[in-house]
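Hi, here's the filled form for the chain we discussed.

Project: internal
Contact: R.S.
Residues: 309
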Amino acid sequence: MSEYAHIVERARGAFAAVSSGEAFLEKEPDNGAAYSNLKGLRRIALAAQEELERYASLKQIDICHYRLVPEEAGNYQVGNVSSCLLTYQKLFSQLHDAIKNGPKENAKIGKESEAESALNFAYTYSGSLGVALLVNSDRGFFEGVLDKPIDAIYEIMSIEAPDAVNGIAKNFGRAVVKRVFDWSKANIEGGFSSDIKWKRSDGRLLGQMVEKSKLQKISDYIEASADAKTKILEVKAMLVGGDLQTKSFHLTVPEGDSYKGIMSDDATLASQPLGNFYNAKIEVSETYYYATEQTKTVHKLISLTKIDA
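And the returned structure, exactly as it came back:
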């Protein structure tokens, strides 16, 4: 067994012993010997944790302490706990990938970024449900490879308005927004607040308790937000349908796209027979909804000019 594995295993065993001691004392709260024994076990666990932190600092390993705080005491359904941890991992990896390789539209994480940001289980501890997670930081002279995604996690947690969602999308990509939404939803559905502390290998400690009510607000902000873009297309297309009463139109490009929508106030089909080709100017409005990853597209006909034979 390597020195690293030995130190992690020692901490894991120490905290497991504390949990067993606490469980025993709950059954026999007046047992003085058990209370004294528990105090000793906690000292051993704290010493094991400090040893791990010293080793992590020397070997450029960042430590994440992730604690789930349930609304109802003892409510730790396995599905909810695993969902919270998994969506947090995906958010962290997506952020690292965005910072390393640039913002992404889709939630696909590069293999190298995924491997670099993979969180490894170390041990659990009491005080709600706490999990210690480890990740190699590969620290250079000025910063570690994971410093920026760690900072970004806390930046995202502090958003206070729907407008901030578009800022996250601009800086980190739409995929990160979806990951934030998924992680928030996982905590909400599990009934958890999240207390997340990072002990970086440069000695810096970052931490924040994110209440379930805050996570609900973040989720609501994302559900209420969308990214709208508009562009003008000029195409040669056949008019295959139109309705003056509803001001609707249908144009098709041979072996190409089809456009259905409404006409602008300045456009008209009154003298334009079906089946002919026209030069069409079309406004295309695309609205992307972060929470569902769905895009709604609206076509508006600006002008239609018959092509002379």
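Let me know if anything looks off before we file it.
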